[in-house]
Amino acid sequence: MSIAILAIESSCDETAAAVCRDGVILSNIIASQKIHEQYGGVVPELASRAHVQHIVPVVDKALLTASCQLSSVNGIAFTQSPGLIGSLLVAAEFAKSLSLSLNIPLIAVHHMQAHALANLIPSTTNGQQDGKPDFPFLCLTVSGGHTQIVLCESPMKMKVIGETIDDAAGEAFDKSAKLLGLPYPGGPLIDQYAKKGNADRFKFPEPQIPGLNFSFSGLKTAILYFLQGHEQRDPAFIKENLVDICASIQKRIVSILLNKLKKAAAETGIKDICIAGGVAANSGLRKAFEEAGKLNHWRTFIPKFEYCTDNAAMIAITGYYKYLAGDFVSLNVSASARAEW
Ligand code: KG4
Ligand code: ZN
Known about the structure:
Layout: E1 4-9, E2 14-21, E3 24-32, H1 44-65, E4 75-81, H2 85-102, E5 106-110, H3 111-117, E6 124-125, E7 128-129, E8 137-142, E9 147-154, E10 157-163, H4 169-179, H5 187-194, H6 217-233, H7 237-268, E11 272-276, H8 283-296, E12 299-301, H9 313-324
Parallel strand pairs: 1-4, 4-5, 8-11, 11-12
Antiparallel strand pairs: 1-2, 2-3, 6-7, 8-9, 9-10
Helix pairs in contact: 1-2, 3-9, 4-5, 4-6, 4-7, 5-7, 7-8
The structure holds 5'-O-[(R)-(carboxyoxy)(hydroxy)phosphoryl]adenosine (KG4) and zinc ion (ZN).
5'-O-[(R)-(carboxyoxy)(hydroxy)phosphoryl]adenosine binds near residues 145 and 279.
């Protein structure tokens, strides 16, 4: 029997829905919320309201694009946690209503597990099926709210073996961008400017954190003092050196991430290594990750660009594996801003 999963994601500021049939993604629809740009960050109340407006058209489009009738869906997957509670509630309550009215299983998905499992979405390049990582694999999951090294033993069994003790990598990009006067979210802009800059021009410190954990707050402070010092002497410093500053900041963030990933690979002996999450869209990280893979004889995997930043296809693929495992939840389930794995 073929299994169709409808997945809904609303944990932050993207309203997304996707359909997968037998593990193949048939549609992946996202409505982004531009309204937050003027505030320099996501405003939770505005995000929840926008999700309420977008959810019906986004789900309709996902079903239509997949040529899938609601009546032929076998399971409803939704992001249960972590995220902004008012945002999470929209997809959670919508999914519960659908599950109740269609009398089909409800599947609760952890957003960060889904980011890692985006690496299991089959993709085709030039007519050739791309490879998937074998279990166990390691995934460096880097987003706006999280930075983790995850040991993935099976789709249902994952363990965080390293994580940030303060800011996430995405926050490091966004906060640095803010210091440079760039709009929110600044990560993609730093990426763009960095392409034209000299990454060796300025040296930012690498934190000395034991084990596999990360820290980015010291880097943020170092960048603040660096910019303040230069601007006092030359008010045009940022404007005239923007591309080199961006390239140097990006180089340091990438090296912090990859040094810990190399350590995790060496300690576990695992050679199938993935990256995932919004920051995995960063061109500097993608390039340096591939290079590290060649040097260390890893098999490297990066989700397609649209499956790195927040999306519902990753919720759908995780929902599919949970469906196969019979991992369902009751209608009493509630969304949760924070959740342990
Ligand atoms: O996974 P995601 O879409 O949402 C969360 O779950 O947080 O990640 C969003 C983060 C933001 O901090 C954004 O600036 C960052 O990913 N990001 C990037 C790039 N694209 C998105 N950071 C650096 N370079 C990029 N190209
Ligand atoms: Zn995310």
